[in-house]
Amino acid sequence: MSASPVIEVDQRNLRYGEFHAVKDLSFQVERGELYALLGTNGAGKTSTLEVIEGHRDPSSGRARVFGKSPTNRREVRSRMGIMLQESGIAQDLTVAETVRLIGHISGRQDSVERVLNLVDLAHKGGTRSSQLSGGEKRRLDFAAAVYGRPELIILDEPTTGLDIQSRDALWETVQQLREDGATVVLTTHYLEEAQQRADRIGLMHQGTFHLQGTVSDLTRTLPASIQFSLPPDAPALPMWPAPLAGRSYSIETFALQRDLKNLLEWADDHAVELSDLSAAPTRLDDVFRAIGAESVPSPLLVR
């Protein structure tokens, strides 16, 4: 990765009248990484993206894209592809005309045929955008964003409305673009996508970062869980589980492998059958649900 970040946000604040939407937000996105910007509803994600895209000036603080102000359209816009959460496609244009128009506006060079093949819309080139299905419109939005192989691609809820095959195809294309050097900023409500694909995640809550770091950084802030059921005549356990319904128990642990090993060895030594046994590491959606809860033990992580 280059020593110079693609995106630099420093102490950025954004106000709408008396409402403080974004508070002292600072982060960087390195060249070639996929950075997921996640958060609860109203957390400030959209406002943050609007500043990065050059659509809104911060109330205070600084934002730079490729070392320039995002509002410097001549220097920045041609290097950035944006897939908005809601389509802005002109309904009376055909699919091919839409992509061609986006290419003209962006100033990037590409082949309409290549891009339509990339998103599996070549057979729809002469179809008016108004006649596309919801999933096809999202693929057209994606085509507009990746036209001309931009260096920075912003994907705002890119897979909403796509079937599984279309989602897989989109992510295969994103991976190809990353291998060619593209930097990607992602927002999504499909947390498994961020968990599987993001190099780093910024998790926003009430206008600022609640947590920031790799998936591993974030999931280590909460314990993993071991659940099982015991027979009535089982001896005392060597650890202190939390009782659940009936004879079921749960162990929350930050050392999943060690404690699971100890539990299994105890069960083997005492010929105890652990029924309904499950061991699950912490997932990103667990961290997301815990936002704002007093039980979250970890401070802000920054990588």
Keywords:
single chain, 303 residues, alpha/beta, six-stranded mixed sheet, four-stranded antiparallel sheet, 10 helices, 26% strand, elongated, disordered C terminus, ATP binding, nucleotide-binding, ATP-binding, antibiotic resistance, ABC transporter ATP-binding protein
Describe this entry's structure for a reader.
By secondary structure, the chain is of the alpha/beta class. Helix content is 30%, strand content 26%. It has 10 helices and 13 strands. Helix 3 packs across helix 4. The chain starts with 6 loop residues before the first strand and ends in a 14-residue tail after the last helix. Pfam families: ABC_tran. Keywords: Antibiotic resistance, ATP-binding, Nucleotide-binding, Transport.
The geometry reads as elongated
Give the class from helix and strand content and strand pairing: alpha/beta
Strand order of the largest sheet: 5-6-7-3-8-9
- N to C succession of SSEs: EEEHEHEHHHEHEHEEHEEEHEH
Strand-residue proportion: 25-35%
User: How many runs of DSSP E, i.e. beta strands?
Assistant: 13
Provide the residue-averaged pLDDT.
Answer: 87
Sheet with most strands = 6 strands, mixed
Task: Specify the number of helices.
Answer: 10
